[in-house]
Amino acid sequence: MSDSPHLKTFKLFAIFVAICLASFYLISSVLLPVIISFTLYALFEPATLYLVRHNINHSLAILLVLMLLLFTSFVAISFAIPQLFEQVSLLQSKLPQILTQLEKLLTGYGAEISEQFGINLDISKITVSLLSQSSSLGQSALINVSNRLLNFIIIFILVPFLTYYLLKDFKKVRNSMMNWIPNARFELGWVIYHNVAQQLNAYTRGVMLQSLIMAIVCSIGFSLIGLDIPVLLGCITGILNLVPYVGPVISIVLSLLVGAAMTPFDPSLLYLGVLVIIAAQIIDNVVVIPAVIANAVNLHPVQVILGIIIFGSLFGTLGVILAIPAIAAGKIVFKNIYADIANTSLKLDN
Length: 350
What we know:
Elements: H1 5-26, H2 31-53, H3 58-117, H4 123-178, H5 186-225, H6 230-240, H7 246-260, H8 267-293, H9 301-349
């Protein structure tokens, strides 16, 4: 008795997933520059094609795009990176004060709760050990981030060259690899590639625009309310927005900690900081997502959460970021394989 179309699809899909996971594992050491380069490829390919359509030589069009990318990199390194270094150092120096202020805040709320409900709740004893541990861990993390910024700068300089060769030769390499597909499945392979590439390109461009808008809105908002290190917090909020559900919560916690460490302490900054992030999220959900990302992926929240957990455990932070596009691509692959197998089985039955 032959396998059902669902079982055949599951077997082929399992093999496909295993190959993808093995490939990601093998290139895990260079995964970050590869992801950045493919992201830039998705962002700059339309500009390259636009220039080609206006009778500019393909190599010259790529060179112009590369020069624009190098100029942008130079501006970022010359102006933005030093400011981020400065703000990271400021955050590092304020970290003990942030934790001390947080302890006072929790102790005050604990006393109010104890008085109101008649519960003997000594928050200070509970938080002292936790805060002492988090202080050392937080300082180590900030030092680690500061040290890694140099590696990120080096990657940022080298990535344009990989992006150039993707813009120049990716389609040739793609066509060569597609020729490996057996003739019986050649059309299916092209259909899957076209659908996946179209969705991932749309998602990548949308998510980059989404993060940029979030970073700009939050940086401006934090500056207007007078919060310390507004640019750094805005950039972090934009990056964390790549992680659904969890990212905005972490951003709110960071804004609360920075607001709590300011001298003199102003409780209104805590509420205003949260309000800035909520306002940015409203803009994101009401304007940006419907206009830019709604048609890129169609995933249930449970799928997103499970994907983040699984990919995060396998690939860490990069896995969390890759979870949504990977699941969206997997759905396309599964549906197309099943449609092809079901259609073949129907023809054989007839």
